[in-house]
Design goal:
The chain has a single domain, classed as Vaccinia Virus protein VP39 (Rossmann fold). With 234 residues, the chain is of the alpha/beta class.
Length: 234
Amino acid sequence: MTPTRSSPDELPQGEEKVAAVRSMFDAIAPRYDLVNRVMTLRLDVGWRRAAVRSLRLERGSLVVDLAAGTGDLCRDLSGAGHVPIGIDLSWGMLAHARTDAPLVQADALRLPLPDGAADGATSGFALRNFVDLGLFFDELGRVVRPAGRVALLDVAEPDNRLLHWGHGFYFGRVVPKIGGLLSDAAAYRYLPQSVAYLPAPASMLDRLRDAGFADVDRRLLTGGITQLITGTRR
């Protein structure tokens, strides 16, 4: 039986969510990379590289990675010849980062960057953790220059009924057990529930367009368990 999906109203909101997210990621930071590799069977490595390729920016471009965590995307951006800056709300995650990129502790809804400062922006599996996704898109529109690109990864739910059931069971039942064995059980029970924060795909794409982006696209990866949202700043 597929686990019951939480309602957004049952999850933390506003400043309570900000505090909960920061505290949770501080707690799981020491073993975050290990759990990611195990619970995704290393598929997360390919997803991040697909996001970097989708930027289609010239080498040497300045790319801000938001919710940078332990620096996975920063390393991939550097490997592609870009110049990344990692920003995360959690000091614990940044303290465990394995990257040479500059790192800044800050709220992604109030970025310490001038207008149009970045050639591009990325985010890996963090859209559901922002307290206001619309404001996050607006901030992307502010800091990314005209013709700059964004590539945003997050979880998704497959359309195929069998895949949908299998993914729901794995994400809702197996992932919390893996997290409990290797890290923090409560955090990895919350992460599957946090999918409820994500708006419907069409609403997300429309909101990104409203924030000043064109060529907005959503591509499903690995049978639909992950989504990659891209756009070009108008």
